[in-house]
Design goal:
The protein is an alpha+beta fold. It is built from 5 helices and 4 strands. It is globular and about 55 Å long.
Length: about 220
């Protein structure tokens, strides 16, 4: 009787074999973004804020002094509404008093504009107190100084408290008359928008989120 061949006795080569991991690789896990850190500021953050804050305040104070000094110059040198060419007819000195917002809007609601200006100053003050980025300090400091100078006009200039008129003296193309504080506000706002688009954080170095799952004893260092 013929015996069974070795091939018949041998089990199938692939029966019960584990699937080859290389043929169907498991999808790689997508790492989750780090959680936004919460809680009190870290010591290194507080130290950097303390280094940046004084320069931010000095910069804002410089904007205020420059704005108020140029307004004083305009009031003591220029004639009301009379244009003095600086760059042809494009840029002129022209002294005007504005009880409203930009372009004279809201002339009848000066006291409301004063409240808005005060709220803006408070909001900027809170922001300034938490900035540790030098670039953000320049942008926000310019806005802070411009806003404070405008608020001072509203509070202390004629015709009375909280109804003061803004001193404007830079005439642009006969279309808009402004001052140094206006320039600081526009440049500062533009700088903040640009820094946001560039992804620059107001805090440098950026805050690090704590590890939610610390390594157990004996585990490799994370």
């Amino acid at each position: 009787m013929g015996g069974m061949s070795d091939a018949e006795h041998a089990p199938a080569a692939h029966e019960g074999a584990a699937p080859d991991a290389t043929e169907n690789p498991a999808p790689e896990a997508t790492p989750e973004p780090p959680a936004e850190p919460t809680g009190p500021l870290q010591p290194h953050e507080t130290a950097r804020i303390r280094r940046v804050l004084p320069w931010t305040l000095v910069w804002a104070a410089g904007i205020i002094l420059l704005d108020q000094a140029t307004k004083f110059w305009a009031e003591t040198t220029l004639t009301l509404r009379e244009g003095v060419p600086v760059i042809g007819e494009w840029i002129q000195w022209r002294l005007v008093y504005n009880p409203g917002a930009a372009f004279g809007i809201g002339r009848e609601y000066t006291w409301i504009l004063t409240i808005v200006a005060a709220l803006a100053v408070i909001g900027l003050a809170v922001f300034v107190a938490r900035i540790s980025s030098a670039r953000w300090a320049i942008a926000v400091g310019a806005m802070f100084g411009g806003a404070i100078s405008h608020l001072a006009d509203r509070l202390f200039r004629e015709p009375g408290f909280a109804r003061g008129e803004i001193v404007d003296f830079i005439d642009y193309f006969g279309y808009f008359v402004g001052n140094i504080a206006d320039i600081a506000l526009v440049v500062g706002a533009g700088g903040m928008i640009l820094l946001s688009l560039m992804g620059v954080s107001p805090r440098r170095p950026e805050r690090r989120a704590p590890d939610p799952s610390p390594a157990a004893p004996g585990d490799p260092q994370r």
